[in-house]
Every structure is written in C-alpha cells, then in structure tokens.
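Subject: sequence -> structure tokens, single chain

Hey, anyone have a minute? Need the predicted structure for the following. Not urgent.
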Amino acid sequence: MDDNEGLNSLFELAPDGRVLTVTPLSAYGRDAEGVALQPETGVVFVGFDTGRALAIFDWLPSETTIDTPLERGPECAIS
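Reply:
Had a minute. Here:
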C-alpha cells in the first residue's frame, strides 16, 4: 500500500515481485495506513487516518500463484 506520500493506492504483488494490479484509493479516503485480508471470504479492509475511515472491498487474486491455501494467521483486535 502506498499512502498520501505517493499514489494513495493498493498494490497487488506476485511472489516474484511483479506488480499485478494497482487500485487507486483516493475515492475512499486519504492517507491509507493499514490493510488486512480475510482470505476465507476474499474481503480486504483498508484503514485511513483522515476521517478515521475504513473501506471494505471484495477481492479475488488476479492470478493464482500458489498451489496450497494460505494458513490463517492469528486474530487481531483493535482496542
């Protein structure tokens, strides 16, 4: 992710470092600071500093790059 110091966009990268997609975020908020993916549902959460906003997107990878599913990481909580 690139916040207001750059393109204010979310980048999808392949394991080999290739840029697969670039999604502009300016329509949803400014100064994106955090991103989280829930792989089981394909939902992406992007948090913004400006306006304390949260954008929620449906996501499908633009190409399949691994043969086995990713393991679920630990739960996170915001307090």
